[in-house]
Amino acid sequence: MEWGVGTVSVAGQTLEYACWGPAPGDAPTLVMLHEGLGSVGLWRDWPEALAKATGMGVLAYSRAGYGRSSAASLPRPLDYMTREAEDVLGPVLDAAGIEHAVLLGHSDGATIAAIYAGSVSDMRVRGLILIAPHFFAEPEGLEAIRAAKGAYEGGDLKPRLARHHDHPDVAFYGWHDAWTDPGFADWNVGDAIDHWRIPAMVVQGAEDPYGTLAQVREVEDRAYAPVEALIVDGAGHSPHQGVPEIVTPAVAAFCETLMALEDAPSEVY
Question: How far apart are CA 148 and CA 57, in angstroms?
Fold first, then answer.
């Protein structure tokens, strides 16, 4: 994988990616994992802003079925986020030559990052930044996802997504149909939190229709590692886009603290 813009073959899939800032050999890397309808392009200008604010390299990639990556088979299995964490994320880090990473995920991407940190022993990963993560299904969130189907089939959501996804139906129905499957009501990956051994930052919009503050409390109640929570009043599901003037400096400060811990000399007892 060349540091820049391109595609990489991982786990039988062709995935688009883009990079900003210093390469892995020159600085730690923020690895960005997009939401359930997201892609590299839908991060917009935030990856570049993060590279400038943190001094770190930034890598974003589109999962199969999203952006310009290869298509995915439907229906998606109900454990698709666990499969992404266990089968794809590690090989992406390998292909990029990443040596020190902080995983930054939004929504589904935050859940994938959380599962990876709790189930894969990877010493390269030094911290987590989770924006609107989901650890269990909530009635409010499921209702919002059901409502999105009307916007996709009868509104302007499909043409808007088609500008960013080669396979918009795969992107939308893969996400929507998994979450609204009756079996998903009992989905829960909170036990991943129990196994974290790295610091985490959780960012949650107070007005997020897809998840409540119960998701944040789940992290605070279960994590053994240090947790920093940022609740953004008035923000919805994407506080990093709605109020970047709050979220970007907070992310940069968290990363600065992580890097200071990395650089601190170890005490000998």
Answer: 34
Distance CA 256, CA 75 (A): 41
Question: Per-residue pLDDT for 268 more than 50?
Answer: no
Residue 266 scores a pLDDT above 70 = no
Q: Are 206 and 239 in contact (CB under 8 A)?
A: no
Asked if the model's pLDDT at residue 269 lies above 70, the reply is no
Mean pLDDT of the chain: 95
Compute the half-sphere exposure of residue 129: CA atoms within 13 Å on the CB side of its CA: 26
CA 14 distance to own-chain centroid: 19
- Predicted TM-score (pTM) of the model is 0.96
Which amino acid is residue 238, in one-letter code?
A: S
Compute CA distances 109 → 251, 261, 265, whole Å. Answer: 16, 25, 33
Check the CA dihedral 223-83-73-167 and report its sign. positive
Q: In the structure encoding, which two tokens stand for residue 76, read together?
A: 């998606």
Residue type, 93: L
Q: Counting Cβ atoms within 10 Å, is residue 265 exposed (0-12), middle (13-18) or buried (19+)?
A: exposed
When computed from its CA atoms, the radius of gyration of the chain, rounded to whole angstroms, is 17
pLDDT of res. 265: 57
